[in-house]
Amino acid sequence: MVMQEESLKKEGVEVTLDPKDDYDIVHLNTVFPSDYRMAKRARKEGKKVVYHAHSTKEDFANSFTGSNLAAPFFGKWIQKCYEMGDMILTPTQYSKHLLKSYGIEKPIQVISNGVDTTQFRKNMCDRETFREKYGYGPNDKIVMSVGLYFERKGILDFVEMAKRMPQYQFIWFGFTPDYQIPKKIKEAVHTKLPNLRFTGYLPKEELKMAYNSCDLFFFPSYEETEGIVVLEALASEIPVLLRNIPVYEGWLENGKDVYKGENNKEFMKLIEEILEHKLPNLTESGLLRARERDVSCQAKLLNKCYKIVCA
Hints:
The protein is an alpha/beta fold and about 300 residues long.
């Protein structure tokens, strides 16, 4: 988590990535066996463990091939990992609720993953450059999304919208190898439509340009623990359309910060109304929500948690 490391250093927290260095707290962001072993070793040495719970069994389902079969086992594994923490951090009240439903009794603090609003911000100079590179005209209305090729991300619905709305351009940024995804997702990604494009992986600098060049960020994901790309879109002041799912409750209000839909019928209506300016522009309010979750704010909260753990 480069962004996390850089923001903590600015806050005056000494950070090392070398497990052989001396440290007071180990802060873990992933659930690989090596992370579990590191947590176990730290506890044995009397050091404090802060475990960042970015993953749940719910957002593991409907992802890779076989993920639904593996999800219950994944749930047990992440519970075992997270319970190694003296404190657990998770990005939203919704993900905290899920962790508690697993029976985890360790202290859980909610801290957003954050977004660097100095990096992701409105810059209309990018618009022409990006559109020229990808062959779009100045008057094309472009709907974008970002994510891995997972059913959970709503990729089938994104393709369906492209089929139903040929008057608009649809572009998906992100990549997952074919061998890791089910057949129906593979077929969706290889759909041949004149108004649909899957670009594959995009470097951060180019992704920033994409947010500034497209007209709508459409994120029909069925399950998230927060949605970092949503924060990036809000910070970039692009209109945002989301699926109405519990993770956004309490911090993203429908019709004030973003627009939300329940199904493809509603999405189709909202896409047309947003792109044709039949609905109010909510980007100013959306930017405020992103600024509330700026990485500088999150670093202060992390530092506070470290002090609590060490007290």
